[in-house]
Predict the structure.
Amino acid sequence: MEIFSKLFGKKNKEVKVGGMEDFMTLIRVYFQASLAANIGINNLGMLPDLRTFKTTLHVPTLNNKLGLGERNHCKKMMKEIYGLKDEFFKEIDLSIRKNCHKLQDVQPYMIQFQGFSQDLMMLMGNLMKFKLRLPSFMKKLLYSMTEKTVKNLFVKNDYSDPSVVKAVMAIRQYEKRLGFSEKWITDFVFNVVMLAKKEPKPDAETKK
């Protein structure tokens, strides 16, 4: 646990390991490891999250190729901590193989994914609103609501709010380029939502 906390720079001992920030960091680590393995990147300086992950957890390099061992180690951790399935990681690998064929493709791809994930979470928060207040033990119901909302992003065309319409169109464009399925998007959003629910609430002093 101490190694894991050190990895993600946790200074507050009350913050639970495996939280939302940890999830997003591990997502970035997996992306960077998969990019390294697929394109043949050997310079850790280009992959800051992967470098921290590898050096802190002392992950060995497999077959003299950066990314292979790190990707396996990261996937194992995320499956154990968050219960993600192999298909979730296969989609990331497929997306990277589809979009990144040379070193110059890496930065635009990661910028696209960052834009996609940020727009997606803001839009889902807007569309689901009170549904996100459901208690964590009702996670099956929350998952089905998340699944339905994600599906609507790609089939519903009668949104009235112009800002929502703009965000939906952006998400559809991102999805075409990145190639993630509705199931992958649902699992991604659901994990972030569930972890956000576990984040410590600000006390009265902070709110003031």
Observations:
- Residues 1-16, 204-208 have pLDDT under 50 and may be disordered.
